[in-house]
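Backbone geometry:
***
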Amino acid sequence: MKKRNKVERLNSEIFINAVLNGIGKVIKAQEHLNKINVFPVPDGDTGTNLAMTLKEGASVIKESRGLKLCEAVRRFSEALILGAKGNSGVILSQFFLEFAEYIKGKEYINAREFAEALAYATEKTYEALENPVEGTILTVMKDSSRAALKVSKKEKELIKVILAIYREAQKSLERTPSLLQRLKKSGVVDSGAKGFVLFLEGILEYVREGRVDLPEEIKPVEVKSEYIEQEELEHRYCTEAVVKAEGLESHKLKMLLATFGGSLIVMGAGKLFHIHIHTNWPQKVFELLKDKGEILKKKVDDMLEMNIKRSKGELGIVVDSTADIPLDMAHELDIKVVPLQIIIDGKSYLDGVDIGREEVIEK
């Protein structure tokens, strides 16, 4: 093990290498994180979403060497916003966005400032959520940032603060089943929270040992959740979009979108906004966003389809969306309706999901 000198401040070199090593930990564990994925829906992709979110940040931060700490963190956070996937990925992106905001203009920060930045980022991340749920990545962020504030009052060494953060994060992770009944029933800790703890573990490992272990090729791993049976979903589609808009405030956008579903997260950085929502009407969500600005990216995942893939039935009925079967009838009869792919002007759309019939006629 390489012996490290005492470090009392965080600069861009330490941040970049520590974060890359943290990303490596999450990448390697994505299969396990997928398997224990229970909350908010058991779609078996939390590990993949976190890995792919952090992959976007890794590609940018590698090119940020030599910059001030504030600039490296800003670039990293913006890359996460553009590439964020899934509930935990979006929350992590919001966290780094707020961290970047707190240290704006700083070439480096000391241990106390680091702890304060973490606490600020956590507080603002909670505020960005429609309904913050304890027993998740949020709780681990909150508990570990409080530990950082406490230790940084008497310790100047960065590694001692990071060690306190990691130890408290581990304890907080083990408490997640006591805070969420779904986790307790399935006998697992929260997947997103586990991913965050692994990320912290990688950061601590770099600060201690000075080495970076990041896979050269980062690929998604598709593994379904193993811990619960198929369940009824209140909202079918995990819907995400990145929007570029002038003069748009995130809290107002949140109010407009709240009626369309749950698990709503709206985060913004300047003119860029990343929206995550579970809804039955992704098309309506996109229509509203289109009225507010330019949609740069959009994605829709059918969570019902993911649930059906775990069912043990031997016989299935599959039709495409031209059959025009009502959604409630399809659910009742266990019919899988596959949205027809429509290509207009070289762009691909899913019938009834991110494009409606009226819009097809217009185009």
Summary: The beta strands are 9-10, 109-110, 237-244, 261-269, 272-279, 294-302, 317-320, 335-338, 341-344, 347-350. The chain has two domains: 9-209, 237-362.
